[in-house]
Amino acid sequence: MAALRDRNDLFQKFYSKVTTVLNIEEFGMVLLDQEKKTYKIIIDQAATFARLHPGQEAVLEMEFQASDAVFQRIASSTEPVYFDVATLSGLPDMPAYVHFWKAIHLRQVAAVPLKVGGEVIGAAFFHVDPVTKTPAYSALLQAVSHQLAVAISNIRSNEQVLQYKQMLEQENVQLKEEINSLYNFSEIIGSGEKMQEVYRLIRLVATTNSTVLVLGETGTGKELIARAVHNASPRKNKLMVKVNCAALPTNLIESELFGHEKGAFTGAVERRIGKFELANGGTIFLDEIGEMPLETQVKLLRVIQEREFERIGGKTPIKVDVRIIAATNRKLDIEVNEGRFRPDLYYRLNVFPIHLPPLRDRKEDLEALTWYFVRKYSKRTGHQIKTIATGVFKELRSYHWPGNIRELEHLIERSILLMDGGVLKQVQIPLGQAKNAEQRPVAGQGLNPGQHDMVPTSEKMTLKNMEAEHIVKVLKICQGKIAGVDGAAALLGIPATTLHSKIKKLDIKKVDYLD
Ligand SMILES: Nc1ncnc2c1ncn2[C@@H]1O[C@H](COP(=O)(O)OP(=O)(O)OP(=O)(O)O)[C@@H](O)[C@H]1O
């Protein structure tokens, strides 16, 4: 019985044991709920005439209180309890099944507590002949009940495991769908010439097994491109496992990539599978590869060359079939020249480079990207945005986007949070960038990224002027509102009272910020 895995099998087996070994035709079983406050009948094997009794169905549906006198009596006993049904049914506050026993003319019921590890989980009931009440018979009832308790406890654990398994499977399917809908090719916005070239390269390389190196400034969408390559490849139904080489401390990166054996180093309490093993059959995406420590670079080189590695502290080489996509915002050739990146690894990775243009060089896509993020965030925030003022696009085009698409995305998100009504009239281009947009030189048109903050001129550069200018700008964005979550003080990160006194001190007037 203890080996049984589902309730039906248990019933069959229990039935055959009880009827043959104990010679009992009518029996039942009740189980406590998880909290052990109530219990229900889960097996009810009654004689035919009992099954025809109109009260039976109702009793089977009922929930009983574990604190009732019958259950308490059984739970506190270490051996079978024999109930005389006529006497029992005459007592006050009896559970309904006792009256049902009386109605179907049972005379004596033996009840045995079901215990696992000393804990009561339920009880078994047997309709017994009063003359059979001997110690030997009691011992037999107890032995059968003990097996029953172990079996039901195993079945419950098995049911729980199955439930978790189903949950995980569902979650897995859901996550895969989510990843697909988040990152399929069509989610890459941009149809300008520069992006067309990127798409052509993705199509060319996706179906091969070649290593791909995605190069581009921060926030240009390198991860999106890596996903697109993976999703357009024959490996699309397997995982793309991402490793952020910059986010991991040097001493952990190898264990993260290759895994470790139990006890390989202090703290390695369990064996751990590395990302390369996890990505077997699929793709590994090594983000920020330029940040990888030199010692790890040697090991990576070996995996690329031999498709083989060992777990830390492990002796057996592990073979994997993994496609490698790496990305970096560093100029790897310079890193090689300066001794921070191994040349042999660089040549291995640089098989098929895809250069992602910075946003300032693909301004033809700005409008489509803006609309894309406006839709994304209006959906999330519940704001209905139908129109974007033309001034907004003008302003966006005049900015040089050091943080690229990620910066644009955040800017739109913030602007939507702060806006009122259905027209996006204004975006908060970072400080010192909003005014005189047309005259301002922008990076990519003669300026280097980062230089922009130093451009504006002479006497207006005092701290006081800059502070006043910034406060006016923020007040404009907030349409003059000072306090509250969407007020200027919150946006500036200072208390409203401080802002009031600054406005006074800097002699800022309403006409300066209200149209
Ligand atoms: N062409 C695009 N269309 C739509 N969304 C994009 C596009 N490019 C980037 N994004 C979005 O911009 C954000 C930044 O992209 P991603 O993380 O891929 O950049 P990255 O180049 O890998 O950045 P980093 O170098 O900082 O890791 C993400 O939210 C991404 O979805």
TrEMBL record:
| Key word ATP-binding present | yes
Q: Which domain of life is it from?
A: Bacteria
- Give yes or no: UniProt keyword Acetylation: no
Q: Cross-referenced SUPFAM superfamilies, in alphabetical order?
A: GAF domain-like (SSF55781), Homeodomain-like (SSF46689), P-loop containing nucleoside triphosphate hydrolases (SSF52540)
Give GO terms: molecular function aspect only: ATP binding; DNA binding
Q: One of this protein's GO BP terms? A: regulation of DNA-templated transcription
Q: Which positions are tagged coiled coil?
A: 158-185
**InterPro entries with a match to the protein in the record:** AAA+_ATPase (IPR003593), AAA_lid_NorR (IPR058031), GAF (IPR003018), GAF-like_dom_sf (IPR029016), Homeodomain-like_sf (IPR009057), P-loop_NTPase (IPR027417), Sigma_54_int (IPR002078), Sigma_54_int_dom_ATP-bd_1 (IPR025662)
**Domain Sigma-54 factor interaction, chain residue ranges per copy:** 188-417
Keywords annotated in UniProt = ATP-binding, Coiled coil, DNA-binding, Nucleotide-binding, Transcription, Transcription regulation
Q: What is this protein called?
A: AAA family ATPase
